[in-house]
Amino acid sequence: MGIFLPLVWFRHDDLKEMLDSNKDSLKLEAMKRIVAMIARGKNASDLFPAVVKNVACKNIEVKKLVYVYLVRYAEEQQDLALLSISTFQRGLKDPNQLIRASALRVLSSIRVPIIVPIMMLAIKEAASDMSPYVRKTAAHAIPKLYSLDSDQKDQLIEVIEKLLADKTTLVAGSVVMAFEEVCPERIDLIHKNYRKLCNLLIDVEEWGQVVIINMLTRYARTQFLSPNQNESLLEENTEKAFYGSEEEDAKDAKAEAAVLAKCKPYVMDPDHRLLLRNTKPLLQSRNAAVVMAVAQLYFHLAPKAEVGVIAKALVRLLRSHSEVQYVVLQNVATMSIKRRGMFEPYLKSFYIRSTDPTQIKILKLEVLTNLANETNISTILREFQTYIRSMDKDFVAATIQAIGRCATNIGKVRDTCLNGLVQLLSNRDELVVAESVVVIKKLLQMQPAQHSEIIKHMAKLTDNIQVPMARASILWLIGEYCEHVPKIAPDVLRKMAKSFTNEEDIVKLQVINLAAKLYLTNSKQSKLLTQYVLNLAKYDQNYDIRDRARFIRQLIVPTEKSGALNKYAKKLFLAQKPAPILESSFKDRDHFQLGSLSHLLNAKAVGYQELPDWPDEAPDPSVRNVEVPEWTKCTSREKRKEKVEKPFYSDSEGESGPTESADSEPESGSEENGSSSSSGSSSSGTEEEEEEEEEDSGEQSEDKEEEEEVEKRPKRKDKEGSHKAVLGSAGSPSEEEEEEERAKKAKKKAPQGRKGRVETSSEASTSESSSSGSDSGSEAEAKQRKPPSSKASPKEISLLDLDDFTPSPVQPIPSSSIISTSLVTDLEGLTLTDSSLTPTLLSPAFSAVKTYELLHRMAGEGLAVEYCFSRRPFPGDPHMVAVQIQISNNTDTEVKNLRVNEPKPLSGMRIQEFPEIEHLAPGDTATVVMGIDFCDSTQAANFQLCTHTRQFYVSIQPPVGELMAPVFMSENEFKKEQGKLMGMSEITEKLTLPEKCQSDHTIVQQLTSAANVGRVPCGASNEYRFAAKTVTSGSLVLITLERREGSTAQLTINSEKMVIGTMLVKDIIQALAQ
Amino acid sequence: MCFQQKMIHSLFLINCSGDIFLEKHWKSVVSQSVCDYFFEAQEKAIDVENVPPVISTPHHYLISIYRDKIFFVSVIQTEVPPLFVIEFLHRVADTFQDYFGECSETAIKDNVVIVYELLEEMLDNGFPLATESNILKELIKPPTILRSVVNSITGSSNVGDTLPTGQLSNIPWRRAGVKYTNNEAYFDVIEEIDAIIDKSGSTVFAEIQGVIDSCIKLSGMPDLSLSFMNPRLLDDVSFHPCIRFKRWESERVLSFIPPDGNFRLISYRVSSQNLVAIPVYVKHMISFKENTSSGRFDVTIGPKQNMGKTVEGVVMTVHMPKAVLNMNLTATQGSYTFDPVTKVLTWDVGKITPQKLPNLKGMVNLQSGAPKPEENPSLNIQFKIQQLAISGLKVNRLDMYGEKYKPFKGVKYITKAGKFQVRT
């Protein structure tokens, strides 16, 4: 040391000189050497003053290395570290977002308590930064500050709350991480963001996904009801079928689930379903941690029948690195105890290779043992036979234990296993023999009476088996169960007495034990033998044996001196010894959250958050409702498909009469038909719902009837004096009876309701609106209510009157939209970061759909045709406007071969006809979609509508607002684009807003109903911005509505297409004036 | 500090002889002595593979991986999903591999500054920040010989002075402004056969695992879609984040904006219902005699169901029992080595020609006096078949949208042995 110290000192001097020089290259060289020292764990703290001077260096690399140094040593040299703070404070104001971010990163990494207020300020500012990257950094900084000074918690929670509301995928993961570290108990902060997080999830970066999924698992456990709560009820009769369904494909599982859903009143919260549905695709992630996170979510949250989907993904992870295998197998082992059926199809994937590391082998063995049942045990045992011959003796021992466990669990093979194990007793390897004997001993201990044969067989083996451990174990067994082998036992003792002197010590001890036990049970035959053995032992070389002999003699042979213990000798030696329990070490490990460190260690790790139990009563689900559903996604194909199914579904329901299923439909429908009905019952007014009701008058009245039911129920309930919440409580057993009662009543009422369909329709609508206006008691009910649009009589053309639409708590995301398959929604997800460069087409959020008449009933001789603009992208061609046409046949004959003929488009206009409708039964209605490229003009598209007998000349004229599709863009982009479209392209108009059109909600409603536009976020509260793109040419249309004092307002439209702009202004003003 | 922090606290890199050659702390410094617990576990495990990945110590938890003869030991203080850490550590090792061509002690030591800069970018406060190789490469340029020469003369740096755009764009895996003179897209469909063949030659378990590795050098922002002739073959697929999941679900088409350079597009498993064609068979006769302390060894490998393609790159490795002292064998083809210390027999066969089957035959010398080994060793076989995807998977077409130029496209198929084991 004495030699090295000056040397080191000298070298540091040299570095100091380099750092003080003017040349960046020298500084860099010095910094590199210093960093290398830090990397090797050497102390470089004495260089602090020299290094910290360079914090303002212009050279980026030097700067970066200085940061590295600073973060490492600031804690030790706090006073000097403060010198650098001002540099970072300056950096926080830099116009470059990356410099702002890195300044915040370093500043927050300096663990100096004095700068806490500065950090707090910096974090707060960064949390509202324009750049999502800086906001992400702010989220990262929160836990750093919290660990430095926990008193800041309240302020930090405010920042977290703010960042949780952030809509960019970049921030989501980091802020949830901060939430988990600072305030995991504040679950209430999540409510409003729950649906957003679920929907963003797939686009969040991998690491963020893991954190969010784990947090949401905990959240779901506190907010939803257990999907398996009726398990015990059903278990008895359906258990067999259940396992079967798990083995087979998801299809069967679904069918099974549907069956189950019918017989139990449990209804899954749509939000619960949303979580399950949105996490499922992540099972396909390349990141093992993400897959595991989803797997544990499904294991803890999904209904039993659905858990199976995770097996495939987990098995895939077994191909990964051995560390990954290790963790995954641990979790599979736990899961396979509880849900054996899930992994059974993958049994062979757990077969063991000789090249697997021992720890992996043993875990696989564990899984194989858990999976063993009557049907596959023979295959598994054959596999085990191969393992027993392995070179890896630890593994062989584990295999023998596994065989023992199989034998205890599956009665059928117990004898086979025992025989196999008995054969192993002749193995040369002591470990194998010892393990076998131990396992046999355990097996025999369970039912000694039935296995006296084996005990006899083992007794015979004493002649051949030389391994002392095995001999000793056999002797113990014979001694223990000497009553079952009364004839053999003394003979064995005789043989052993003969060879006593040549035996190993361990065997000698057991011979003494055997002798003692025999003496107590069968003293007549063995008295002399025992004395002989004890005498031999008395003079043995080993003191242990001498001691034992002396002790036992005193205990069992009655003499005058032997004390009180003598009479208890029999109790001492032949006490009932409890049979060892052979069960998996993974049993009950699932009380730890799977995939967690605590689960792996089977001990609670520091900071582990317990997974709460399901609540008995579901907390209010309305807390998750969000006021302004701006980024609602809409659907495409998937939804369309469902639309075809839906009428069938509700029809059949109508047919079966309003029995229990009809009564509970508004609640349970969401379970059975997942997406469609849950979106239907959410009052966000999805178009689908409305269109459907227009389609089919029969169905409509069915709906109405349902509505009535819904309407009447709370009243009835009030009469009954029940104070229970309606929604979600159906599952609790106490309510079941009530439910039934209600069902009966509904049955009685049903015919009445049917008769009075037409008359009651208007009445229903009034009661509906009045009840929603007044406080109707249960919010849940209000949420489930359908929009009143359906109330209008079927003859009316305009089905929608938005004016008396009272906004009820809105569910922003119709759950059906989540599985939408279109590329559009895909892209949409990607552009949620607001730095998106190109605006993307968006499906309309939610808006009213106006219907226009194409062919009047009279003119069409009973054929009535209506059309509307569905505002969905036309699947075949993005440049076409989708027009939904609804044809109803009011004649009393069948209409055949309904098709479009001879379209006569103007120049450039294109029409994509709908597929021919072969026949339309009288009273039936068909809906088809056709695409028309209007070339961004409001010229009508003319064509003929032909039936097998007639031709009708018809034309579709689009309102200007339908020639565009919404675009999502950020405020900045909007401003930027607006800047480009000034002068000629800008049209401004003043207007006065009528009284009823003052609220934000109505303005947005009216505007979006007039034109197919998407809302753009806006900082100012008196301004509304919308953006769209024309469908054909894709030119931007930007709309700004600025509210002035009083009721005046100014409308500005920026668009290249001046004609469209002018027309749009008119239309919008007209819409707002209504 | 009384407050515990989550995620990764520190990282130690340890070589096989137990030297800690690099340490990095993201929070306050943790003493090297924490690694003593790791060494303890390592001693107990005997074999490097058997060191438990998660070790609990009084104040910390150690989560480690073993890659390329280096232990990556991370120090954790609180509950964290272990796979999260393990996956991240592997990502670190992958990044080193990507940057330095190899992930070895020397490479890391030579580039310690870059390593440090990388680690700094990859984790912020112990939480992963930038792990995409595309973003990292923009932040920190990988070393090249030319650049290091230039750097040493001019004193310029290998830290990017233009700030990365990828992190901020909505496509984090691709950087903006990529330009190539030759635009190329190559896809390697690599399938591995995992199999266990039992003593009698029948298949106990066989499965095909495949990956598609891509090398994409395309300018601008190309949007690719890759379709298969028979996509239903793919039973279980895991994707690079760039792939649009919904498109796959609905149309079974891989649609993506690719990262720049080399990456793994998907990995898949072929549905287990399909029977797997095993391309080789092995005839073996291995026996040990008790009294003479010797044994016989006779193995022949032959081709089977190889669809007219040659089986090449055949290598057989056998872990012989401990009692084996030496082996005197003759190979009709290729060469063999036997390591008397590790008891590993390696036979490099090369190509199999059906006319003359390769055979390895001879005597085994056992330790005299020692009992004869009870078990026969299992044979691990490696092989390769070019231009064949054993599952029959075929790429149908590759379309590119979003860019005007015509790229050069190529698909290569190859089948390999994965964990292919013959029990004897």
UniProtKB/TrEMBL annotation, chain B:
Indicate yes or no for the key word Transport.
yes
| Main location class | Golgi
In the bilayer, the protein is annotated as: Peripheral membrane protein
> Known PROSITE patterns for this protein?
CLAT_ADAPTOR_M_1, CLAT_ADAPTOR_M_2, MHD
Give the UniProt entry's GO cellular component terms: axon cytoplasm; clathrin adaptor complex; cytoplasmic vesicle membrane; Golgi apparatus; postsynaptic recycling endosome
- What's in the keyword line of the UniProt record? Cytoplasmic vesicle, Golgi apparatus, Membrane, Protein transport, Transport
Q: Which terms in the Gene Ontology molecular function aspect does this entry carry? A: small GTPase binding
UniProt entry tagged with the keyword Transport: yes
Instruction: Cite the MHD domain residue spans from the record.
Output: 182-423
Q: List, alphabetically, the Pfam families matched.
A: Adap_comp_sub (PF00928), Clat_adaptor_s (PF01217)
| Localization per Swiss-Prot or TrEMBL | Golgi apparatus; Cytoplasmic vesicle membrane
Task: Cite a single GO BP annotation.
Answer: anterograde synaptic vesicle transport
Sum up the protein's function in the record's words. Answer: Part of the AP-3 complex, an adaptor-related complex which is not clathrin-associated. The complex is associated with the Golgi region as well as more peripheral structures. It facilitates the budding of vesicles from the Golgi membrane and may be directly involved in trafficking to lysosomes.
Family statement: Belongs to the adaptor complexes medium subunit family.
Q: What is this protein called?
A: AP-3 complex subunit mu-1
